[in-house]
Task: inverse folding
């Protein structure tokens, strides 16, 4: 006996799948329009830099942003690579208050790793996915100028000024800048910068529409260590409370301070995203739900 229904066909299944893909693009359209021509500064680090699968996902995300007219700027870290290079050179790392002591020998290793290995590797990765990317350091064009952060730390810098002229010029030519967190000191020496702080300072100077941090956690938690307390939205007042109360991890504090500074300077949104999630950047920029934690000036 016939039920009046036909059996599903492979063709109908393909049509349904294609319609689903089209729906995704339709939902993304308002966000593409809203951010077209706007600058998004992304701090790239953590697992997203070390997993081949996540590296490819990240490169694809950045390429797509660039292709639809959004202007991504990448600021990268390189701590594990620096530690590995120091070990190979027989240099024993020293730490003060969680920060790497950077003497004259160490800063040479830092420069070599950041400018000579990590930065060109990211440029190669992006270029392989079709982006037009170029690497610079904070020394180039006087992008970052710094003073010593603490005499005990040696050549670890505190950003004194930012001149984004070089990066603005690259963006105007459709180039994705990939920035290594180095700075020039008034004494003529190179200084190592905290990449989180560098990303926030650059977002301020560029008047970015978004500041994004890729991390190895889902986002911010109201109760540190309890994943059930993930915060989807917070304001900068809550961030200040988290820092003052010690409820933010040591590694998260530079990010939060940079978010506060950037938003007080006019950056409208910041995001703490889980870089272990494929296409985390696209999910945040192009979907209404987003992922991770959105930080607002409220």
Result:
């Amino acid at each position: 006996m016939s039920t009046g229904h036909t059996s599903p066909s492979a063709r109908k299944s393909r049509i349904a799948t294609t319609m689903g893909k089209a729906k995704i693009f339709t939902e993304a359209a308002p966000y593409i329009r809203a951010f077209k021509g706007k600058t998004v500064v992304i701090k790239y680090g953590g697992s997203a830099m070390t997993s081949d699968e996540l590296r490819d996902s990240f490169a694809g995300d950045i390429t797509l942003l660039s292709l639809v007219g959004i202007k991504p700027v990448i600021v990268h870290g390189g701590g594990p690579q620096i530690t590995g290079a120091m070990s190979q050179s027989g240099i024993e790392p020293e730490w003060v208050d969680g920060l790497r002591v950077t003497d004259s020998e160490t800063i040479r290793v830092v420069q070599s790793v950041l400018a000579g290995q990590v930065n060109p590797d990211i440029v190669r990765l992006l270029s392989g996915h079709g982006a037009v990317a170029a690497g610079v350091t904070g020394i180039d064009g006087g992008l970052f100028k710094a003073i010593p952060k603490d005499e005990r730390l040696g050549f670890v810098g505190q950003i004194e000024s930012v001149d984004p002229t070089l990066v603005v010029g690259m963006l105007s030519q459709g180039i994705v800048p990939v920035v290594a967190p180095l700075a020039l000191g008034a004494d003529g020496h190179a200084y190592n910068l905290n990449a989180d702080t560098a990303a926030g300072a650059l977002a301020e100077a560029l008047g970015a529409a978004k500041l994004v941090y890729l991390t190895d956690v889902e986002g911010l938690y109201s109760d540190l260590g309890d994943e059930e307390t993930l915060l989807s939205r917070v304001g900068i007042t809550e961030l200040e409370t988290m820092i003052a109360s010690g409820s933010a991890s040591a590694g998260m504090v530079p990010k939060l301070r940079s978010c506060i500074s950037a938003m007080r300077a006019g950056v409208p949104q910041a995001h703490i995203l889980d870089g272990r999630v494929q296409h985390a950047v696209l999910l945040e920029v192009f979907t209404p739900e987003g992922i991770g934690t959105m930080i607002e000036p409220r």
Remarks:
- The chain has one domain: 30-296.
- The first strand starts at residue 39 and ends at 44.
- Residues 30-296 form a domain with the Carbamate kinase fold (CATH 3.40.1160.10).
